[in-house]
Amino acid sequence: MGIYQRHILPFLTDWAMGQSILMEHRSRTVGGASGRVLEIGIGSGRNLPLYGTNVSEVVGVDPSSELLAVARKAATTSRVRVSLIERSAENLPFENASFDTVVVTWSLCSIPDPLAALREARRVLRPGGQLCFVEHGLAPDPGVRRWQHRLTPIWKVCAGGCHLDRKMDDLVRGSGLEIVDLTTGYLPAAKVIAFMYEGRAVRN
């Protein structure tokens, strides 16, 4: 692992995820969590201050040891109990039906196999449990889509595997989860990175 991936990219990722333009989406998504929560791609722990008293525990997984080191500092002031595990989301070390909520915020874009990660999320959710998500992805406008497809091969090299052109609602449905709430639209930013999917899905 080079200097960029080990030192520069984690800093850039934390900075990008801390932008105020994301906070409204982040707050709504995390605010819907309850019970025992698994957060996929917890990164530097930007969501931890947003978990409320209806959450009993947060278990966070992320493959980046550098970002998890930052998250551990954030966990010391969290209002809820936090456990952090360095792990890929495609193979989770948890029992079936062991969580009430899975939260994922702007992480499915960079997971190598997002469908496998979502199937794992479904596996560890109890029946009736929920996935709360907000992600950026494939836009509906043909011109924007073309640029997303063109730029993704270069973008993912620079941005830690981030894909601009994943259709997030199709991925969630493909995992066997049922989407019960979905809002889409552009943030006021460059359209190739700004089409958002925010919603909630349940395990039946």
Question: What is the gist of this entry?
Answer:
By secondary structure, the chain is an alpha/beta fold. It has helices spanning 3-17, 23-31, 65-75, 114-124, 142-158, 168-174, and strands at 35-40, 55-62, 81-86, 99-105, 125-136, 178-186, 195-202. The radius of gyration is 16 Å and the shape is globular.
**Proportion of β residues?**
25-35%
By secondary-structure content and strand pairing, the structural class works out as alpha/beta
Biggest sheet: strands, sense, closure?
7 strands, mixed
Q: Give a count of the beta strands, DSSP E runs of length 2 or more.
A: 7
Q: Give the H and E element order.
A: HHEEHEEHEHHEE
Mean pLDDT across every amino acid position: 96
Question: Low-confidence stretches at least 5 residues in length (pLDDT < 50)?
Answer: none
C-alpha-based Rg, rounded: 16 Å
Number of helices: 6
User: What helical percentage do the residues reach?
Assistant: 25-40%
The span between the termini is: 41 Å
Shape: globular
Major β-sheet strand ordering: 3-2-1-4-5-7-6
Describe this structure in words.
With 204 residues, this protein is an alpha/beta fold. It has helices at 3-17, 23-31, 65-75, 114-124, 142-158, 168-174; strands at residues 35-40, 55-62, 81-86, 99-105, 125-136, 178-186, 195-202. Strands 3-2-1-4-5-7-6 form a seven-stranded mixed beta sheet, with helices on both faces. α3 (65-75) links the parallel β2 and β3 (81-86). It is globular, with a radius of gyration of 16 Å.
